[in-house]
Amino acid sequence: MADVNRGNRPLSPHLQVYKLPIAAVTSILTRITGHALVAGVLLLVWWLVAAVSGPEAFACADWVVRSWIGFIVLTGAAWALWYHTLAGIRHLFYDAGIGLEIDEARKSSWAIIIGSVVLTLISLILFFIG
Amino acid sequence: MRYITPRKAATGMGSARSGTQHHWAMTVSACALVLLTPAFLLVVGSAIGLPREGVIAYFGRPYPGIVTALFVIVGMVHFMKGTRIMIDDYIYNTERKVAIIASVIFGWAVISAAVFALAKMAFITIAI
């Protein structure tokens, strides 16, 4: 007992010092984007309610929606919405037992990250030219 | 004497006796939202930038109004069920109950506000 090596054993990974695999990052981001999306919904619902409340209320909400703050919140919400949608579709495949191997999960993780950025850029382009 | 077999009593039931309804409800609302998300983004993208009268007339039309109402209602029900999972994972005891109640009240408040605004826009548009 006295000569037990206490300093050189492998340590079990701890979340704060453990480099998360990409599949774990995309998994927790699904939950984070889902909850953060409520900011975008709140902004848009406030804007809708303001439109039927009166001209002053709408001017205020519309100013926020079209300001740089609104642009950041709504662009962020668009990305979060696309990310959550793609990750949710992956969950539907997971439920069907498809794509559960580590290598497949790694590939679908990158597909979700790249796909969400591409779809957000397409949304922005459609918004500004449409 | 129970006539039900043990297998029948257990099928589809977890320890909470409510089984897989929550997961199934998330699956159904997720599929609906996959369809609603692109439709909603196109609708909202067309509406931002319009003057107040334009916004009211736009959402007073059937397609934009229905897509927006569906997205907010199905989205917030999906949100409430999603927060429930997060609350169950991270919050305990009385705080858990308070958080669940707050999440449900908040979700229905957002739904009511959106439905009220959209209904009023539809009625204003009819009056026009």
TrEMBL record, chain A:
The keyword Nucleotidyltransferase does not apply. The chain crosses the membrane at residues 20-48, 68-89, 110-129. The keyword Phosphoprotein does not apply. It is a multi-pass membrane protein. Its cofactor is heme. InterPro entries: SQR/QFR_C/D, Succ_DH_cyt_bsu_CS, Succ_DH_cytb556, SuccDH_FuR_B_TM-su. It is found in: Membrane. Its main location: membrane. Keywords: Heme, Iron, Membrane, Metal-binding, Transmembrane, Transmembrane helix. Belongs to the cytochrome b560 family. Membrane-anchoring subunit of succinate dehydrogenase (SDH). NCBIfam families: succ_dehyd_cytB. Part of an enzyme complex containing four subunits: a flavoprotein, an iron-sulfur protein, plus two membrane-anchoring proteins, SdhC and SdhD. The complex can form homotrimers. This is Succinate dehydrogenase cytochrome b556 subunit. The lineage of its organism: Bacteria, Pseudomonadati, Pseudomonadota, Alphaproteobacteria, Rhodobacterales.
Automatic annotation (TrEMBL), chain B:
Its cofactor is heme. Keywords: Heme, Iron, Membrane, Metal-binding, Transmembrane, Transmembrane helix. PROSITE patterns: PROKAR_LIPOPROTEIN. InterPro entries: SQR/QFR_C/D, SuccDH_FuR_B_TM-su. It is found in: Membrane. It comes from the Bacteria. The keyword Transmembrane helix applies. SUPFAM superfamilies: Fumarate reductase respiratory complex transmembrane subunits. The chain crosses the membrane at residues 24-50, 62-80, 100-119. Membrane-anchoring subunit of succinate dehydrogenase (SDH). This is Succinate dehydrogenase, hydrophobic membrane anchor protein. It comes from Paracoccus onchidii.
